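Shipment paperwork, digital attachment
Item: protein structure file
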Amino acid sequence: MSKVKINKTRHILKAITWNLLAIITTFVVLSYLPQFFGLKPLDKSSVGWLVILDRVLKLLFYYFHERAWFTSNLGVIKPPKD
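Attachment content:
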């Protein structure tokens, strides 16, 4: 039985589309949710900077989270030595 191979471009495109969805979601939430709760709406410039800050921080947190998991042996099944 052969394993399916996935092109690395697919992973890159998946990451880009996921980040675009996250950016749009954060923008919509910051633009319209405060008004829903009766709060003063944020100006679009503030929303834009908050979206950028959000993505940069999440990218950094994700990187360090991945590095921590990479160093962990939890759930890793090593093949038997011959």
